[in-house]
Amino acid sequence: MQVKTTEKNTISLPEVHVSYSAPLPLGELLLAGGGRAPAPDWLRQAASGRQLWCIDRGIDCCHRAGLVPLRLIGDGDSATEQSWQWAEENKVPIEKFPVKKDYTDTQLALEMAAAEQKYVVLTGAMGGRFDHAYSTIFSFGHSNIQGCIADEQETVFFLRGKEKITLTLKRHPKAISLLPLTAAASGVTIQGVCWPLQEAVLTQGLPYAVSNEAAGEKISIALDNGILAVYICWQENKLA
Question: Which residues are within 8 A (CB) of 26 and not within 5 positions of it... i.e. 6 or more apart?
């Protein structure tokens, strides 16, 4: 008797539905980090159908949203005492690390998430210090994790090697940018935007493919070689 295996190649977030050219892991994991907290409603939507882990101060946004995570990872240096106690009262398994260590809490959590072999949505990762965001984006992009960074303001998808994604927008974005995470990303094609590219080479030294605009509801991005971050800005904070 032949057993059929179920495959999927799509994921959904509150702002966008994404189709990948290759099969994705069947399970999905939401990691709530300690950067800019996602809105509670957004977090509750994103947590639906996904396992939930927290990274240090990420327990604060889960506490506010009333979402009890399956795991809390971190050194406890930035989470509030009330939220940490709430996690303990709810018997959340806590994996605590020393404050003084070589890797960030997010890097350690991504390492653990990689072993789960799930599609990973990392939220609470943007909006804070530039060095932390830089570390997180490059660590995620150069990992073997299928996933994205997302909240209601910004989303980052990752393409590696010969990959393609198609975005079906539920909300019109402010801007779409393509950022190479290797010295060069070649064979870059983007369609469905005001300024399309065809088989372009993008370099870290001159990242010009920024601030593009959606021409409709569907956008496709393809890559031949390298690692490419697809950045989407949904909500722009105006400077004073």
Answer: 6, 7, 8, 118
Cα distance from N-terminal residue to C-terminal residue, the chain: 67
User: Sorting pLDDT into bands at 50, 70 and 90, what band is 76?
Assistant: low
| Bridge-based pairing state of the strands 184-191 and 197-203 | antiparallel
> What's the predicted TM-score (pTM) here?
0.90
Which of 98, 95, 100 is CA-nearest to residue 115? 95
pLDDT at position 114 is 87
Name, in order, each residue with C-beta under 8 angstroms of 233's C-beta and a sequence gap of 6 or more: 153, 154, 173, 174, 175, 176, 177
pLDDT in tens, 180-192: 999 999 999 999 9
